[in-house]
């Protein structure tokens, strides 16, 4: 079987890669091109890992607590247990749980914060969300058995300067009669919910019956659904609503957080494209390096030509040299990027402590930390792109090398 690259060219090309350059300028440009490739590939790996982390955390954290889909009725829901059984009988619906949504103010020590209070049935809620991962069984049991308990998100608790065991005031306005005095009740904080996501600044949980008592109609607001396929939520919900009949309507996470999800993917593509351009610039620095090598090695090239080396073999020498530079630079860049990905969250946390600044705030960003999700298919794509660009960058210098005239070159040697 004949090799696509002659063994002679492979041997000489590898010799040129490992040889120390006598020309200081050539040696400097070679190191700069290699360093640029390593840094470009490494930063691209880190950026892709961060964007993948945001994608994963949105799906596994935020959407594990907020409804994947919700079903409502224009006149409210009176008999939610029968509707729950009916919903769970539909294909693709894994579980259903009732909730009461109350827009209210929670106050303590002359401070007040607007919150969305969700009245839940903890037993049913375990089947539609991952609430049990963030709250203990004792807390959920206390919430189910007592009507004077509330669970506050960590962001809300921090703004109100309260902790578990403190008492807070819940103020619920009368939406039907704005002039009527609001309903005021006092409850104890059973626990503080910490997810390090935007949920911490918006969510409060209460006993289902207590939340019903805070509303005038005393009905259940809706039923939240857990689906077997998160990304088919719109179609599944549409079929459910059509079958339930008149008066029912609903929304899915695609309506509430779909824009955020698409924004993350769009940002990943755009940032990936920009970082790929940086990798491309670093790869094409190989052009200047190889051209300098061609100029320096003109005498050696002329001797090889007089010994019978063909133009194809001369081109292959420099293609091998540039490709090896690309492979080594890409692999070292991957090692640099993966290593940096493992420590970037800690580095950001340390920088926040040193500067006393929080870069990611939950009231602005969906997460309060940098999530990392290293995907090997992305790394393989980065390496392939970097090596391909380096290979393309070698074509012109290799062609220049093949055009060296032995007679003209050796005349001045």
UniProtKB/TrEMBL annotation:
<feature type="domain" description="ABC3 transporter permease C-terminal">
    <location>
        <begin position="273"/>
        <end position="406"/>
    </location>
</feature>
<dbReference type="GO" id="GO:0042953">
    <property type="term" value="P:lipoprotein transport"/>
</dbReference>
<protein>
    <submittedName>
        <fullName>Lipoprotein-releasing system permease protein</fullName>
    </submittedName>
</protein>
<dbReference type="GO" id="GO:0044874">
    <property type="term" value="P:lipoprotein localization to outer membrane"/>
</dbReference>
<feature type="transmembrane region" description="Helical">
    <location>
        <begin position="316"/>
        <end position="344"/>
    </location>
</feature>
<feature type="transmembrane region" description="Helical">
    <location>
        <begin position="24"/>
        <end position="51"/>
    </location>
</feature>
<dbReference type="InterPro" id="IPR011925">
    <property type="entry name" value="LolCE_TM"/>
</dbReference>
<feature type="transmembrane region" description="Helical">
    <location>
        <begin position="379"/>
        <end position="399"/>
    </location>
</feature>
<comment type="similarity">
    <text>Belongs to the ABC-4 integral membrane protein family. LolC/E subfamily.</text>
</comment>
<keyword id="KW-0472">Membrane</keyword>
<dbReference type="GO" id="GO:0098797">
    <property type="term" value="C:plasma membrane protein complex"/>
</dbReference>
<keyword id="KW-1133">Transmembrane helix</keyword>
<feature type="domain" description="MacB-like periplasmic core">
    <location>
        <begin position="33"/>
        <end position="226"/>
    </location>
</feature>
<dbReference type="InterPro" id="IPR003838">
    <property type="entry name" value="ABC3_permease_C"/>
</dbReference>
<keyword id="KW-0813">Transport</keyword>
<dbReference type="InterPro" id="IPR051447">
    <property type="entry name" value="Lipoprotein-release_system"/>
</dbReference>
<keyword id="KW-0449">Lipoprotein</keyword>
<keyword id="KW-1003">Cell membrane</keyword>
<feature type="transmembrane region" description="Helical">
    <location>
        <begin position="270"/>
        <end position="295"/>
    </location>
</feature>
<dbReference type="Pfam" id="PF12704">
    <property type="entry name" value="MacB_PCD"/>
</dbReference>
<dbReference type="InterPro" id="IPR025857">
    <property type="entry name" value="MacB_PCD"/>
</dbReference>
<dbReference type="Pfam" id="PF02687">
    <property type="entry name" value="FtsX"/>
</dbReference>
<keyword id="KW-0812">Transmembrane</keyword>
């Amino acid at each position: 079987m004949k090799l696509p690259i002659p063994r002679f060219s492979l041997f000489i090309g590898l010799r040129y890669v490992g040889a120390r350059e006598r020309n200081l300028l050539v040696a400097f440009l070679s190191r700069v091109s290699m360093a640029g490739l390593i840094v470009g590939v490494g930063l691209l790996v880190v950026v892709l890992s961060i964007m993948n982390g945001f994608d994963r955390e949105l799906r596994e954290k935020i959407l594990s607590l907020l409804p994947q889909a919700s079903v409502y009725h224009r006149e409210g829901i009176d008999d939610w247990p029968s509707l729950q059984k009916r919903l769970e009988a539909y294909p693709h619906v894994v579980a259903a749980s009732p909730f009461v949504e109350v827009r209210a103010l929670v106050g303590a020590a002359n401070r007040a914060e607007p919150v969305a209070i969700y009245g839940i049935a903890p037993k049913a809620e375990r089947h539609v969300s991952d609430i049990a991962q963030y709250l203990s069984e004792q807390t959920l049991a206390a919430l189910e058995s007592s009507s004077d308990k509330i669970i506050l998100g960590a962001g809300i608790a921090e703004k109100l300067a309260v902790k578990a065991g403190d008492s807070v005031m819940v103020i619920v306005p009368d939406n039907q009669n704005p002039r009527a005095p609001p309903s005021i009740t006092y409850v104890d904080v059973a626990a503080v919910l910490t997810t390090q996501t935007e949920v911490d600044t918006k969510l409060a949980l209460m006993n289902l019956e207590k939340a019903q008592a805070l509303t005038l109609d005393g009905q259940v607001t809706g039923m939240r659904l857990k689906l077997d396929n998160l990304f088919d939520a719109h179609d599944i919900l549409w079929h459910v609503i059509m079958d339930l009949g008149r008066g029912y309507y609903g929304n899915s996470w695609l309506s509430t957080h779909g824009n955020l999800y698409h924004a993350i993917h769009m940002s990943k593509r755009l940032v990936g494209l920009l970082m790929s351009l940086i990798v491309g610039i670093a790869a094409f620095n190989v052009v200047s390096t190889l051209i300098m090598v061609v100029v320096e090695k003109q005498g050696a090239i002329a001797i090889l030509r007089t010994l019978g080396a063909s133009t194809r073999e001369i081109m292959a020498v420099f293609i091998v040299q540039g490709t090896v530079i690309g492979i080594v630079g890409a692999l070292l860049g991957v090692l640099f990027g993966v290593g940096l990905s493992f420590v970037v969250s800690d580095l950001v946390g340390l920088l926040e402590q040193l500067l006393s600044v929080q870069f990611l705030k939950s009231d602005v960003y969906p997460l309060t930390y940098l999530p990392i999700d290293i995907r090997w298919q992305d790394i393989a794509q980065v390496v392939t792109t970097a090596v391909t660009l380096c290979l393309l960058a070698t074509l012109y210098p290799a062609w220049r090398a093949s055009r060296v005239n032995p007679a003209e070159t050796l005349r001045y040697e």
